[in-house]
UniProtKB/TrEMBL annotation:
Lineage, highest ranks first: Bacteria, Bacillati, Bacillota, Bacilli, Bacillales
Native source species: Bacillus nakamurai
UniProt domain HTH cro/C1-type: residue ranges: 8-64
Full protein name: Cro/Cl family transcriptional regulator
Pfam family, one: HTH_3
Gene3D superfamilies xref list: lambda repressor-like DNA-binding domains
Amino acid sequence: MKKVKVNIGDLLEKQNLSLRALADKCGIRHAALSELINGKRQNINFGHIERIANALDIENINEIVSLIEVEGDNHDI
């Protein structure tokens, strides 16, 4: 099964930027960014992804989000 992985934490580390600094730079609440990074948000706001990309000067969305293979599924149907 595939799952969306948000790579913002890795990007912040590479750019030596704090979560608070990113929040200030892109105008997204610190709490919302933290939830994205920690996988606590089920929905991704594309407007947020665009603002993050602009703030971090990213051209390819794959740097921000990617699909990863995971074992099993916690959401039995």
